[in-house]
Amino acid sequence: MSDETDRKTLIAKQFIGALPHAKELGMTIVDVGEGTATITMPYDEKLIGDPETGVIHGGAVSALMDTCCGAAVMAHPAALGGTATIDLRIDYMRPATPAQTISTTATCYHVTRSVAFVRAVAVDSDADRPVATATGAFTVEGAA
Amino acid sequence: MAKRPEPVQVVKQRRDAVLQSLVEGVPYIQFMGIHFDRRGDELTGVMPYADKLIGNPMLPALHGGATAAFLEVTAIIELTWSSLWVRMEAGEEIDISSHRLPKTIDFSVDYLRSGLPRDAYARARVNRSGRRYASVHVEAWQDNRTRLFAQATGHFLMPQKDD
């Protein structure tokens, strides 16, 4: 791992600690690369959206997706400052299995001077069948 | 001869009881602190400001995920509420605990301006509600109704009888 990646990892870890809502949902950054990020969110009963089945609410998955995409943008070499979501679309493929941690990986697949295009996928313990996918556009700040 | 209309407090009590059980039954809605104002059949979602909803502490601004969640909660409650309305108005006893909620198929959020550290409001409109699928649009604002800070469209799978 390069010094640059070490630095980014440190920044990213501090970044999530500084986001009260992400912290509240128990999110942890597990990996950061150039324009990529992986974040986990543990299962918690307070996040249940369907009391019959114990499946967590789509809103909590949205929060995880948004945070992870934002982290991927900030980890991109072209993004010097912060970022804001312009739009985010989430497709829910299947209910997340109750009691399992959700892990999301986001990738910036194209970055211009002002916009980053990001894709993300969320899985639970069964990593072969995605729980949800997301595509979004984010602002790129700090560029001239 | 026409039936005498029910006393207004009976009608209100029934509507409020259905709405309350709908909202209180979902832990995540409680966690987010979201509640609903009702005027007749019109619902307004209210998400009072809380520090835990902040995403960027420097600005400060609401977390985009908290905004998305608020919009999605409002869409699901409105959709469920409007699908129960006819039965509720007919005076049917509705047991919410056995009623399945619609499932989100996809949800697409536009962030129009950053969410301020203030209370947020949202209203949803069911544009199409079929037997299996529904399409819902939802708008959120803070201090000014005409200055939206986010809007979203979502598609939902309606609960089926044999679910």
UniProtKB/TrEMBL annotation, chain A:
Listed name of the protein: Uncharacterized domain 1-containing protein
GO molecular function annotations of the record: 1,4-dihydroxy-2-naphthoyl-CoA thioesterase activity
InterPro entries named in the record: HotDog_dom_sf, PAAI_dom, Thioestr_dom
SUPFAM superfamilies documented for this protein: Thioesterase/thiol ester dehydrase-isomerase
Alphabetized UniProt keyword annotations: Hydrolase
GO annotations of cellular component type: cytosol
Domain Thioesterase stretches: 54-126
Transmembrane segments: none
Top-level lineage group: Bacteria
A Pfam family: 4HBT
Record Gene3D superfamilies: Hotdog Thioesterase
Hydrolase recorded as keyword: yes
UniProtKB/TrEMBL annotation, chain B:
Pfam families tied to this protein: 4HBT_3 (PF13622)
Coiled coil: none
SUPFAM superfamilies: Thioesterase/thiol ester dehydrase-isomerase
TM helices/strands, residue ranges: none
Span of domain Acyl-CoA thioesterase-like N-terminal HotDog: 61-154
Superkingdom as given in the UniProt entry: Bacteria
Designated name of the protein: Acyl-coenzyme A thioesterase PaaI, contains HGG motif
Organism listed in the record: Cognatiyoonia sediminum
